[in-house]
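pls read this stuff:
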Amino acid sequence: MQRRKIIQWGAASLAAPAFIAQAQSFPSKPIKLVIAFPAGGPTDITMRSLADSAGKILGQPVIVENKPGAGGTLPAQALQSAQPDGYTVAQIPLGVFRLPYTTKINWDPVKDISYVINVTGYAFGVVVPADSPLKTWTHFVAWAKANPGKLSYGSTGTMTSPHLTMELIAQQLGIELLHVPYKGSADLMQSILGGQIMAAADSTGFAPQVEAGKLRVLNTWGAERLAKFPDAPTLKELGLNLVQNSPFGIGAPKGTPAAVVKRLHDAFKQAMELDSYKTALARYDMVPMYMSSAAYQKFAADTFAREKALVEKLGLAKPL
């Protein structure tokens, strides 16, 4: 027994220098950051700014790969087959924590991801075409009540935060809406401008279209009104006790060495503090929303439990 302990201790002592050396030499090649939405949208543009700065800090490029679809959960799924060496990391949108309640999967969003850092969240709202007869949120609700299931709205995907929040709003107001999912903001904006849908629930990537006089904002979903749209009321002002900012960050495969996670965390945190990133975020009314690796891991566990209750409340949970 004693001899076995000595052998185990010896193996551990030999592994320790190798572990330290791996962390010290990391990264020795480019890092891939998989994000959940298409090129050209708010997530893509802000994450590319962050990745560019983090790459300079790390001394190796951080290359963004877009993997849209499946409600923003494909990057997290990609982590399940990636090597736990820090060279593949992924954006973790809030939809990841709903996945097990709606789809049969063989991995756990809390236990099977190494949470690195939370970086920001979204500013959301509802928009309609500028020439829409739905001039205000009051008009929107009245039309929906008079025409059950006919008021069409688009979101960036089934089971995303815009989709679920709109369904929660509809439930609280006693209205029935027609949901049309898209892969990202670019497709969604094209559709609403083309007249295919009556409204859109999205992050404020719609701002240029509002400023150009093509869309009108009916409400926003933060705790306070947005400076860019001071005339648009919050959900709370409209009598709905809801705030949605959908925090997201970066995760790595389960089993990624702690020292590598720390190296990634420190680089991305430093990049978050740069003016270039803050400027990119401000373009979409987003702000840095930092959580350390430990705090982000706790947030994941808490959110996983909370999202289960939301999905069940909306009657969207599927028997698995």
Observations:
- The radius of gyration is 22 Å.
- The chain has two domains: 15-121+247-313, 124-220.
- Residues 124-220 form a domain with the D-Maltodextrin-Binding Protein; domain 2 fold (CATH 3.40.190.10).
- The first helix runs from residue 2 to 25.
